[in-house]
Amino acid sequence: xxxxxxxxRIFLDGGDPEETRKLISLLGFLDGQTTNxxxxxxxxxxxxxxxxxxxxxxxxxxxxxxxxxxxISGLIPGGSVSVEVYADxxxxxxxxxxxxxxMYSWIPNAHVKFPTSREGLKAAERAVGEGMxxxxxxxxxxxxxxxxxxxxxxxxxxQVYVSPFxxxxxxxxxxxxxxxxxxxxxxxxxxxxxxxxTASVRSLDHFLYAVKLGSDIITAPYEILxxxxxxxxxxxxxEFTYDAKGLRPIPYRAIDLAKxxxxxxIRHELTDKGMERFSLDWNALIEPEKRKTAHG
Length: 296
Ligand code: E4P
Hints:
Blueprint: E1 9-13, H1 17-27, E2 32-34, H2 37-41, H3 44-51, H4 58-75, E3 80-84, H5 93-104, E4 110-115, H6 118-129, E5 134-139, H7 142-151, E6 160-164, H8 166-171, H9 176-187, E7 194-198, H10 204-213, E8 217-220, H11 222-230, H12 269-283
Parallel strand pairs: 1-2, 1-8, 2-3, 3-4, 4-5, 5-6, 6-7, 7-8
The structure holds erythose-4-phosphate (E4P).
């Protein structure tokens, strides 16, 4: 059972429903799950198919993704399951929204993931206006989180998540956990309509520090949640301090949340790189001649 003093919701980051089943049995609960194109490409069934030299057609890969999230949704009916749209540098807001609407209809508890890019924010603004739940992914800065706040103003609580990717900042020598602390601090001046979902978690220390900071949600890979479960689902002790191990600090900036989202500087190299990686991993699943029709 979930520890009663743990307010943070715990999501699994993965594309294999077998992991979801195993964790529910180990932990006694899961509050939700996040998926993305790379994680779907790592699904054992998808990998086995590719190893046989068989790729998916455009329709087949969407059916496959739909089946995976439908199974996960059935395992966590009271939670949230994030499903990510295909988005490369050329994908328009229009196309993202069209995909998002389709994915949203797959399961009753979906959050649609849009990238925290200009087109992604445009799509999210419209999606939220139409009542959809969204998870803004590939967020790497406080400014991007401010833009998410502004683009989704008026949303109800629970409708909008922002996913700062801490591990990928750590990978390039910056202290990703600072971004979580900074966004949570900035959002204290707001109305609480955006929830912070700590993503790209690489260690139990990331996990425990995110709990300590009061992240609304954490998504973590199977191995980390398994280790946490096997240790008895510990909460960070009062004297817990996070060791950033020499990573460069990311300082807090005073940012006014009242601006239009278009007025924030949302560019981040890692958002562009992340979109590129996700689209490459997704395209690698599809027969080349079928790709053109796969992203409409
Ligand atoms: C979750 O929503 C993200 O897609 C995920 O945490 C990314 O993690 P990674 O940086 O390990 O790929």
